[in-house]
């Protein structure tokens, strides 16, 4: 179970390499991810992205779609620094299911 | 403790406005009046100001107001090295040091020097003395003096030797009064633009900005959002809430949205507003209205956010382990322990 989780975590982290990390780092930030046994991925933005008002857009348009394509990932979330209203609008914009992003 | 929030007050000032400290030739009376008028403006029923003209606060009174009449656990006594009008400043270093000496388990000492008053080398030497002899763990700076005399945080000749001396002597946080010009100070001298280069050049130093730089609120928040070593003390904003609640909520909401909850600090500005508990109760019960969450994207003011602002953030900055400190202050029973501590203090133990 632990090794399966490790493999999933590695796949998820690798998925962020390239376009996602390049974009985030270009803004003076960083991104890390933790995945639990159930496949729930938790994103943490660092640096200038940590409390960026546009972080939900980055999540909705790039991070979530990228990670949800990976087999074994059930949901993608982060501790938000914007209001639940803004989060809901963004989810709707990108046609994402709230349950996937809880 | 307020409920289960550890309360670490970032900014209390041991004022000294007695005649021997007032510079009558350089606007001392006018500056005192301006300060009291500001406190009066942002006061109201339940949130009174104190006309501190001509008075000097005793350490026993400060202890009573902070630790017996409020849920504050620990506090930083901040020197106010704003000298124009006051010979030793509004809140002299010695008065704040004395409070720390009287109650070292409750009070940290924030020193204060000024390159214009002390001179370039004098400020560095006095800062080192306050660290070594008086145990300063932080410094407060007021860059603007009357009539447009000022200095800049990113001045390599005047300011950088101070930051270097602080770091070399174990002080890794410095604090700045920004905005809120008094008397004939020029507001442009209190703008936050000089923070950026210093924050870049001294990544190991933490720069704490007070008052959100009002009226440069958006600029201050924008700059803080982009540097992890810039922190915002909500001083004066919590005091403005009773008069202008929506304005205060906008300011706090913008801070949370752009800077996040990890770099915001609680500060009461005691003792010009002496009812510290009223502000603690106010913030503990504060909520971000739904229309501001919806229309401006401000996040809700959750208990987790309040816990960070009330004390966790500043404790982390100052290297204080909250659990250890609570045990030191109250033993194992926090509230029961606090009552016992109060009783002990009353009996001079």
Can you put this structure into words, describing what you see?
- The complex is a heterodimer of chains A (102) and B (349).
- Chain A has helices at residues 2-16, 19-26, 55-68, 84-93; strands spanning 29-35, 40-47, 75-78.
- Helices cover 46% and strands 19% of the residues of chain A.
- Chain B is of the alpha/beta class.
- Chain B has one domain (8-318): Metal-dependent hydrolases (TIM Barrel, Alpha-Beta Barrel), CATH 3.20.20.140.
- Chain B contains 15 helices and eight strands.
- Chain B has an eight-stranded parallel β-sheet with strand order 1-2-3-4-5-6-7-8, with helices on both faces.
- The longest helix of chain B is centred in the C-terminal third of the chain and has 16 residues, at 303-318.
- The radius of gyration of chain B is 19 Å and the shape is globular.
- The A-B interface holds A 28, 47-48, 50-53, 80-86 and B 225-226, 228, 256-262, 288, 290, 293-294, 296-300.
- Chain A: Residues 12-68 form the NIF system FeS cluster assembly NifU C-terminal domain.
- Chain A: It comes from Paractinoplanes ovalisporus.
The CATH architecture of chain A can be given as 2-Layer Sandwich
SSE arrangement of chain B, N to C: EHHEHEHHEHEHEHEHHEHHHHH
Proportion of β residues of chain B? 5-15%
Q: What's the end-to-end separation of chain A, in Å?
A: 24 Å
Q: How many strands in all of chain A?
A: 3
Mean pLDDT across the residues of chain A is: 87
* Number of helices, where a helix is a run of at least 4 consecutive DSSP H or I residues of chain A: 4
Could you give the count of β-strands of chain B? 8
**Percent range for β-strand residues of chain A:** 15-25%
Oligomer: heterodimer
The CATH superfamily of chain A turns out to be Fe-S cluster assembly (FSCA)
What's the CATH topology name of chain B?
TIM Barrel
Domains counted in the coordinates of chain A: how many?
1
Report the principal-axis shape of chain A.
globular
Average pLDDT taken over every residue of chain B: 93
Tell me the domain tally of chain B. 1
Q: What is the name of the CATH class of chain A?
A: Alpha Beta
């Amino acid at each position: 179970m632990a090794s399966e989780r490790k493999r999933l975590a590695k796949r998820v982290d690798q998925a962020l390499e390239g376009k996602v990390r390049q974009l985030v780092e270009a803004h003076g930030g960083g991104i890390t991810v933790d995945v639990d046994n159930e496949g729930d991925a938790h994103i943490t933005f660092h640096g200038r992205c940590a409390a960026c008002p546009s972080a939900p857009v980055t999540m909705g348009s790039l991070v979530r779609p990228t990670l949800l394509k990976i087999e074994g990932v059930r949901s993608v979330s982060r501790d938000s620094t914007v209001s639940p209203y803004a989060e809901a609008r963004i989810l709707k914009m990108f046609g994402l299911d709230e349950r996937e992003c809880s | 403790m307020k409920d289960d929030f550890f309360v670490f007050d970032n900014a209390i000032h041991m004022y000294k406005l007695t005649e021997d400290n007032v510079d009558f030739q350089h606007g001392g009376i006018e500056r005192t009046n301006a300060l009291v008028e500001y406190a009066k403006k942002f006061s109201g029923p339940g949130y009174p100001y104190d006309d501190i003209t001509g008075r000097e606060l005793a350490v026993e009174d400060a202890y009573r107001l902070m630790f017996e009449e409020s849920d504050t656990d620990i506090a930083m006594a901040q020197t106010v090295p704003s000298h124009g009008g006051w010979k030793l400043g509004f809140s002299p270093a010695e008065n704040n040091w004395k409070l720390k000496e009287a109650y070292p388990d409750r009070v940290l000492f924030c020193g204060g020097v000024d390159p214009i008053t002390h001179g370039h080398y004098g400020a560095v030497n006095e800062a080192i003395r306050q660290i070594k002899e008086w145990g300063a763990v932080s410094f407060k700076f007021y860059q603007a003096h009357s009539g447009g005399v000022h200095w800049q945080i990113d001045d390599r000749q005047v300011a950088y030797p101070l930051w270097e001396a602080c770091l070399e002597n174990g002080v890794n946080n410095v604090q700045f009064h920004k905005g809120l010009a008094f008397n004939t100070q020029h507001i442009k001298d209190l703008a936050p633009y000089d923070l950026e280069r210093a924050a870049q050049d001294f990544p190991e130093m933490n720069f704490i900005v007070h008052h959100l730089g009002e009226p440069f609120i958006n600029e201050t928040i924008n700059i803080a959002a982009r540097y992890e070593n810039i922190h915002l003390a909500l001083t004066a904003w919590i005091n403005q809430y009773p008069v202008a609640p929506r304005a205060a909520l906008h300011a706090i909401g913008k801070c949370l949205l752009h800077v996040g909850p990890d770099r915001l600090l609680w500060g009461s500005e005691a003792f010009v507003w002496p009812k510290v508990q009223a502000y603690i109760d106010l913030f503990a019960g504060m909520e971000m209205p739904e229309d501001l969450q919806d229309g401006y994207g401000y996040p809700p003011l959750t208990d987790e956010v309040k816990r960070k602002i009330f004390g966790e953030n500043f404790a982390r900055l100052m290297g204080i382990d909250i659990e250890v400190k609570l045990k030191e202050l109250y033993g194992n029973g926090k509230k029961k322990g606090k009552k016992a501590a109060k009783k002990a203090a009353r009996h001079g133990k």
